[in-house]
Amino acid sequence: MSEQQYNYGMVGLGTMGCNLVLNMSDKGFSVAGYDKDPKKVDTLNGLDVHNNIEAFNDIHAFVQALQTPRTILLLVPAGPIVDAVINELKPLLQAEDIIIDCGNSHFTDTQTRIDALAKEGLHFMGLGVSGGETGARFGPSIMPGGDLKAYNRISSMLDAVAAKVNDEPCTAYMGKGAAGHYVKMVHNGIEYALMQLLAETYHILKVHGGLTNEELHDTFDSWNKGRLQSFLVEITAAVFTQPDEEGKGMLIDFIADTAHQKGTGAWMSQDAMRIQSPIPAIDAAVTQRILSSLKQQRVVAARFFNKENVVEAAPNKETLILDVEAALYTSFIITYAQGLAMLQQASTTYKYETDIAVVASIWRGGCIIRAALLKEITEAFRKDDKLANLMLAEEFSEQVKTGSIALRRVLQKGLQYAIPMPGFSACLNYYDSYFSEWLPANLIQAQRDFFGAHTYERTDKEGTFHTNWNQTIY
Questions:
Q1: Which of 379, 408, 409 has its CA nearest to residue 394?
Q2: Cα(379)–Cα(300) distance, rounded to whole angstroms?
Q3: What is the pLDDT, as a whole number, of residue 108?
Q4: Residue 469 is part of a domain; what is its CATH number?
Q5: Active site residue ranges
Q6: How far is CA 205 from the centre of its chain?
Q7: Are 449 and 313 in a shared domain?
C-alpha cells in the first residue's frame, strides 16, 4: 500500500490519460493512476520526474492512496466501459467523493449517471477535453459541467492544467447537469462543419483552380496569417507539404477519399432535431462523411456521369482564391452562429444556465476549433448575453452580408463545374433563410391541413384553424 496520499486519481492510462496525468504533475498536483494493463502502469511510473505520481493495477490500492474526499478522473472509452468502471469504484468510495468522466460520453448518459450517483451521495461530472494528445499534455480546452460544489473543488487544478490565452485559462464552469459534455458535443459538431468547409475549399481550388500541393500550402498558410487564423487552417496548410514515407510524392495524394466519424457530429444533429434548432452546416458535414464512405458505389456511379457536358473555362487563380477566402471566412462565422444558437437553445431546454460568452472564450486556445475569430465572438456575447444569433451582432452582420456575395460566386462555380459543396451551400441557405422576412412555410401548413387536418395559423387573427379543402382529387 502506498504511504503517500495523492490529490487526484486517474483511471485509464492510455495516451490521453497518461498525458493529462503528466500535465497535472508538472503543475504540482500529486496523482495516482490506475489501469488494468501492467505495461501502461509501468510506463507512467517510469515517467515520474517530479516524484508526485504513482500508478497501480490494483484498484483497491489505487483508491486507498487518494486523499479524502476523493476526486477520480476517468479517461476510458465512452459507453458501457464508463459504467463498468463506476460500478467497480462505487463500493470503495464514500459520500462526497467525485467521479469525473473526461471522455466523449453522450450527454444523456452523463445526466443519467449524475442522477443515479447523487442518490448514493457521490458527485459525478461530465468534463469535455479538447486538444488531442498534445493538448492533454501541455494545455487543453476543458469544459466541466455538473454540480457547482464539486466544480469548485477542482477548479484550481483545471485552471492550472488548461491552455492559456492572455494568461486566462481556457476552462470555466459550463453549467448544471450534463452541460460539460453537451458543450463538448457542440464543439465537435462545429469541428465537423469547419473541416467539411476546408475540404470543399481544397476541392474547388484543386479541381477548378488547378492549384498544386505547393500552391495549396502557400494559400492556406497565407490565410492562417490573416483573419482565418486557426488551428484547422494551420494544419491544413501543413498537410500539403507532408512527404509520403514511401517516396511517391506528397502523402495527401495517397490518402483514401473516405472519412470516418466517432458519433459526436451525428449526436449533435440528432439533438438539434429534438430541440428544434437548425444546424444545416453540421448536418451537411455529417452526411458528407457518410457519403464519402460509399466509395465502391461512387466508383460505379461515376461511370454514368457524362463529364463531357461540363465545359470548364480557365479560371483566374488570384480572383478565385480571393473569393474562396471570403466564402470560407463567411461560412466559418455562419457555422459558429449555428452551433452557438443551438447551445443557447439547449441551455434553456435542459436548464444548464450556460454562458455563451464564457464558452467562446475557453475555445480561444487549446481546442481543435480555436481561432482568432473566437475573440470577436466572445466580445459579441459579452456585449449582449441575450444575442439570439451571432450573425445579428454588429461585429459580424456587415461582414456576413458582404461575404455572402463572394460565397454566391463560389457556389456558382461549384454548380457550373459539378463540384459538390454541401457545406458552403448549407451556410448560404441558412443565411438566406434566417434573413428572409417571408418563407413559403404557409404552403406547408396548407398541405398538412389538407391531407391530415393538422390545422394552420393565420396572419390576420389569432388561433388555429382547419379548412375542408377541395377533396375532389381523391
A1: 379
A2: 50
A3: 97
A4: 1.20.5.320
A5: 184, 191
A6: 26
A7: no
pLDDT surpassing 70 at residue 310: no
Are residue 430 and residue 446 in the same domain, yes or no?
Answer: no
Contact 56, 34 (CB under 8 A): yes
* Confidence bin at 1 (pLDDT 50/70/90): very low
Looking at residue 206, what DSSP letter applies?
I
2 within a domain of the structure (yes/no): no
Determine, yes or no, domain membership for 272. yes
Q: Is the preceding peptide bond at 169 cis, omega within 30 degrees of 0?
A: no
User: Are the C-beta atoms of residues 196 and 285 closer than 8 Å to each other?
Assistant: yes
- Domain end (from 162, 177, 192): 177
Residues near 47 by Cβ (< 8 Å), separated by ≥ 6? Answer: 18, 22, 53
Q: Read off the C-alpha cell for 422.
A: 454541401
* Cell numbers describing residue 306: 457524362
3-state secondary structure of 140: coil
Q: Dihedral of CA 289/187/283/210: which sign?
A: negative
DSSP β-ladder status, 141-145 and 164-165: unpaired
For residues 361 and 388, what is the distance between their CA atoms, to the nearest angstrom?
18
Tell whether 403 and 462 lie within a shared domain.
no
Domain of residue 131, CATH code: 3.40.50.720
Distances (CA, A) of 293 to 282, 286, 288, 290: 17, 11, 9, 5
| Calpha distance 416→199 (Å, rounded) | 18
Q: Which domain holds residue 363?
A: 184-434
Residue 231: pLDDT over 50: yes
Nearest to 47 by CA among 36, 31, 61: 31
pTM value is 0.95
Single-letter amino acid, residue 231: F
In a domain, 405, yes or no: yes
* pLDDT at residue 438 tops 50: yes
Burial class (CB in 10 A: 0-12, 13-18, 19+), 462: exposed
Whether residue 458 has pLDDT greater than 70 = yes
